[in-house]
Design a protein that fits this description.
Structural class: alpha/beta
Radius of gyration: 18 Å
Number of domains: 2
Number of helices: 6
Helix content: 10-25%
Shape: globular
Order of helices and strands: EHEEEHEHEEEEEHEEEHEHEEEE
Number of strands: 18
CATH superfamily of the largest domain: 2,3-Dihydroxybiphenyl 1,2-Dioxygenase, domain 1
Strand content: 25-35%
Length: 297
């Protein structure tokens, strides 16, 4: 396979690991896959992988004064950090990306590397031919969840980024991923989805950088450069999920194209909720459903 196989995981960082994990478990039913501390060059974090819906999220907090996670949290306030893409062969992928003028920033080991964000429209991408042995997509049974979640996530619907010139960025990324640009607008309005790129088993939504008229509730005042921003979670019934979350102090602050955007001060990762996968989602066309998680008795 030339391009990506799927979204392996997203990565979100914050100042405190436990303060990220707790709400994701309580609100959306996140299950812990593993937790560890890594002081490896380019990593420097306490964190781990959690399972939400039908995909995984790496969450972490900084370890060590030279941790790149610390730089990210202190400079940008934490939040969505990067996405990890699964490929057949990391070394072959690095060689292919080099032909597209994309260079590795750091190799974690022989099977995992980050590419330089300046080569990929300012977005930090991880490329891996590995997987963890506790991943449900490879048949692992998740640990029982500690409590019934308020609004259980059924699927990981999408990840979002904010970029200048979304259509051009979509063309660039789809070429690197060997996937498709599923929709694109040359001049999207503020708060409008500018382009959508297939991640094979998920979507990447590209919004334009905030300008005059953009929602302060969604973007705040600190987004001035291209970056990953939020994720979207599929729930069974949007109205019920919003009501149940509101009773726990988590309220939506904006609506975009039928998606409810939760108060970013109340959740550890900026979050959209939807009750249906977007029409562009490649999972609609799959003959077989996404691998279902297994629960230990």
């Amino acid at each position: 396979m030339v391009g990506i196989k799927m979204l392996w995981h997203t990565t979100a960082m914050g100042a405190d690991y436990d303060e990220m994990l707790g709400p994701l478990q309580r609100l959306f039913g996140a299950a812990v896959m593993h937790e560890n501390v890594s002081e490896a060059v380019g990593v420097g974090r306490r964190g781990g992988m959690i399972w939400v819906g039908d995909n995984s999220i790496e969450i972490g907090a900084p370890v060590g004064e030279r941790s790149p996670v610390r730089n990210f949290v202190e400079r940008w306030g934490g939040g969505m950090h990067s996405i990890a893409l699964q490929v057949d062969d990391a070394k072959a992928t690095a060689e292919r990306l080099a032909r597209h003028h994309v260079a590795p920033q750091v190799w974690i080991d022989d099977g995992i590397f980050f590419s330089k964000p300046q080569d990929t429209a300012g977005l930090l991408l991880e490329w891996s031919d590995r997987h963890t042995d506790d991943d449900p997509r490879w048949g692992h049974a998740l640990r029982p969840r500690p409590e019934t979640p308020v609004a259980p996530a059924l699927q990981y619907a999408f990840v979002t980024a904010v970029v200048a010139r979304p259509a051009a960025v979509a063309d660039r990324l789809a070429g690197l991923f060997d996937t498709e640009v599923l929709s694109a607008k040359e001049n999207p309005a503020p708060d409008e989805i500018g382009a959508i790129v297939s991640l094979k088993d998920c979507l990447l939504l590209l919004f334009p950088l905030p300008t005059e008229g953009a929602s302060k509730e969604i973007w705040g005042s600190g987004i001035t450069r291209n970056r990953f921003h939020a994720h979207g979670l599929l729930v069974n019934n949007l109205a019920e999920a919003v009501s149940d979350l509101a009773s726990h102090g988590v309220c939506p602050v904006a609506q975009i194209a039928g998606m409810a955007y939760l108060d970013p001060e109340a959740v550890p990762i900026p979050t959209f909720l939807v009750e249906a996968l977007l029409v562009e989602d490649p999972r609609h066309a799959l003959a077989q459903p996404h691998a279902q998680e297994k629960q230990e008795p």
